[in-house]
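4.2 Preliminary Data

To establish feasibility before requesting continued support, the project team ran the inverse folding procedure on a target of 186 residues. The structure was first converted into the token representation described in Section 3, and no sequence information of any kind was made available to the design step. The complete token record follows.
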């Protein structure tokens, strides 16, 4: 069975959300970061960077939430055959993990980056329920989780961006979301 290693209030909840969306059985291994469990030799064999999340799937080990999301989408048949369409999904996963996360969560960047990023996202999301159209994909998990974290953790207000607000509302109303990210393991 796949093992997901995480900690309280970590990006492991993003991976949990996607595993639940895929209906994939997994074991969640909670690491006590305050006690330094992420720096113990056994865990460093899984992720030498000593960060979470990480997964062990049989003999395969992988870390970084975006890489894990893409791996799961590939493994469970949720990536399209088209190289171009797969690349667009990858683009959004990387955007969520890096550009959007840094734009919203690094306070020194927020004042400049948040309006620029959310204005563009608002235009992209206008008139469609998900990033790529009518179908929920791993891209929505990657981007939607960061947007939702912005509301939950930073109390960000997206009301100036109605399509973004509607998108976040649509994602956070998903039952799987409510049982994973909205209820973080503490």
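Position-by-position output of the design step:
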């Amino acid at each position: 069975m796949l093992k997901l290693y995480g900690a309280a209030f970590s990006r492991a909840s993003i991976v949990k959300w996607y595993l639940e969306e895929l209906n994939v059985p997994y074991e969640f291994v909670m690491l006590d970061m305050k006690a330094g469990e992420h720096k113990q030799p056994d865990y460093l064999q899984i992720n030498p960077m000593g960060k979470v999340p990480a997964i062990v799937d049989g003999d395969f080990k992988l870390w970084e939430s975006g890489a894990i999301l893409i791996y799961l989408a590939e493994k469970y048949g949720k990536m399209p055959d088209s190289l171009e369409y797969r690349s667009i999904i990858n683009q959004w996963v990387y955007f969520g993990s890096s550009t959007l996360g840094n734009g919203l969560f690094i306070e020194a960047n927020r004042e400049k980056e948040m309006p620029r990023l959310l204005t563009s996202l608002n235009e992209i999301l206008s008139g469609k329920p998900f990033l790529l159209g009518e179908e929920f994909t791993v891209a929505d998990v990657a981007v939607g989780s960061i947007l939702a974290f912005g509301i939950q953790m930073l109390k960000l207000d997206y009301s100036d961006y109605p399509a973004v607000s509607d998108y976040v509302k649509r994602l956070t109303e998903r039952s799987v979301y409510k049982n994973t990210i909205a209820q973080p393991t503490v």
